[in-house]
Description:
This protein is an alpha/beta fold. It has helices at 12-21, 33-41, 53-56, 68-80, 100-114, 128-136, 152-155, 165-181, 193-202, 223-226, 244-260; strands spanning 25-29, 46-49, 86-90, 118-120, 141-146, 185-189, 207-210, 218-221.
Amino acid sequence: MSVSKQVKRITTHTLQAMKEKGEKISMLTAYDYSLASVVDDGGIDVILVGDSASNVMAGHETTLPITLDQMIYHAQGVVRGTKKALVVVDLPFGSYQGNSRLALESAIRIMKESGAHAVKLEGGFEIKESIVRILTAGIPVMGHLGLTPQSIYKFGTYTVRAKEEAEAQRLLDDAKMLEEIGCFALVVEKIPAKLAKTAAEAVKIPIIGIGAGGDVDGQVLVLHDMLGITQEFQPRFLRRYANLYDDMRTAVNKYVEDVKRRDFPNESEQY
Ligand code: KIV
């Protein structure tokens, strides 16, 4: 009898238990089958199919142009490449704001057509109705507060959010509300570390930070940034774990040279 190695999938309940045990949650983005397989094999807890695909994969300046169909396409590949990680997919700009029925339909399409496990939405009280409606369909929702890139034209810059008392208090109120209505976790982006710590202590659900310091329940980074594939984006919070842009360019260069000087293919590389 062969012993098959069954991998146990991370669920929203696993993440809750991790917070309760004080075990940090690791989360990275991925947008395709190949890199999702690497990230999953690397032991990540959560893969986010972020709408940052709009920047990283399509070269747009903001996350606003990416469509629901495009997010579903990215998510399908990621789900196929993942055995263990919980896969969360961003609802893109325009697919949920101000219209809870549209929000529910968008979330259902993501779950049905990609096989992902949860969705993420940016915002607090202003999108409460949309989140509640998605939750009533049994779809797990991750919130996203602080710097919410879909609102970049309202903010005007990608600078640190909630430095002032009023915005900080609003963020804490939003975090508590999102917990109360049933979100399973929250991302907080680019806010003071002290505020992020207060938020993580104020709610029982996991708070996952990006540019929010170490006193939260987990960390998320954009994969292409931490691997050094993207070059221009260099915020203070980003730690680069590789310099793949240079490695890949060197490899391409070498291939071009080998083709030009008739070194590739050699005898053992042909039929
Ligand atoms: O789209 C994304 O990559 C994100 C992360 C930065 C949290 O929302």
